[in-house]
Write a structure and sequence with these properties.
The protein folds into two domains: about 5-170, no CATH class; about 200-230. Helices cover about 45% and strands about 10% of the residues. The chain has helices spanning about 10-20, 25-35, 75-85, 85-95, 100-110, 135-150, 155-160, 165-170, 200-205, 205-215, 220-230, 255-270; strands at about 45, 50-55, 60-65, 120-125. A four-stranded antiparallel β-sheet has the order 1-2-3-4. Helix 2 packs across helix 6 (about 135-150).
Length: about 280
């Protein structure tokens, strides 16, 4: 199965999965019932937090929030430089999409993925309900998931990334003299971070992509290479080559003094009368 056959999961659905992991159906149903009580004008998405007000029973107002730390910026210049050579990712960002490949690129360079897992998101609510997270927090998660389906770039805003400022730096044309030239004359940096949900590099590269990455190859050459790579895992390693027997050490060369001493000793033994 190649990358074209794999389903790409939206940011909203990914957020929903993370937020509701381990939550039973009854609590999810209660969260959906509470969703209309969120006061839409009072939803505030800022770097590091999502906050809203919800109308409770008897006219009460609940303050609900989600918090996550913003991404570190120490390696952001490196990310920008790589993006200058990754046309497909930049085009997606310019069109308001946030591809999984960008998420994986951020993780590789910055050291932390753009999209957070559930453990890194904390929450708070002013209600006194015993369950944690309460239905108000779950409702806010659901609201943000729906917003991501329509405005995926808001996940960048949440993680403290100014998308327009980043794209402005990417569009700058100053040369990157310390970057190596692109291999094989390809037009952009090969994107080795597939977008499919469960894809990996070995499963995602198609023969056409391999030809693009390696240059002009024949179809038979590509297929033969893939077949050989697949067969490597099933091929036992070759037996070790026989080693030649060790040669005896060369005799130590005598010095002139040692040779003379030996000759004298042999002459004494020859001159000694036998008994």
């Amino acid at each position: 199965m190649n990358s074209a056959d794999r389903k790409s999961v939206s940011l909203g659905e990914r957020w929903r999965r993370e937020a509701t992991r381990g939550v039973d159906d009854a609590r999810l149903a209660a969260a959906l019932e509470a969703l209309p009580s969120i006061r839409k004008p009072m939803v505030r998405i800022r770097a590091g937090s999502i906050r809203c007000e919800m109308e409770g029973t008897m006219g009460s107002i609940h303050e609900v929030s989600l918090q996550i730390r913003t991404l570190p910026t120490r390696d952001w210049n490196t990310l920008v430089r790589v993006l200058r050579r990754s046309k497909s990712i930049v085009e997606a960002l310019e069109n308001g999409r946030v591809p999984r490949s960008f998420d994986r690129l951020v993780a590789r360079i910055v050291g932390e993925p753009l999209f957070p897992d559930a453990r890194s998101v904390t929450f708070g609510c002013s209600c006194d309900l015993p369950e944690k997270p309460c239905r108000h927090v779950l409702a806010l998660h659901e609201l943000f998931a729906r917003r991501l389906d329509e405005r995926p770039w808001e996940v960048l805003m949440l993680r403290g990334v100014d998308l327009q400022a980043m794209l402005a730096k990417v569009r700058q044309t100053e040369p990157d003299g310390d970057l190596p030239p692109l291999a094989y004359g390809v037009p952009e940096e090969p994107v080795l971070y597939p977008d499919a949900e469960d894809a990996d590099l070995g499963q995602s590269l198609t023969p056409a992509q391999i030809r693009w990455f390696n240059g002009t190859w024949s179809e038979r050459g590509v297929e033969a290479t893939l077949k050989a790579l697949v067969g490597l895992a099933d091929t036992p390693p070759p037996p070790p080559a026989p080693t030649a027997p060790a040669l005896p050490p060369a005799p130590k060369k005598q010095s002139a003094a040692e040779a003379v001493a030996g000759d004298v000793e042999r002459a004494k033994r020859a001159a000694k009368p036998s008994s």
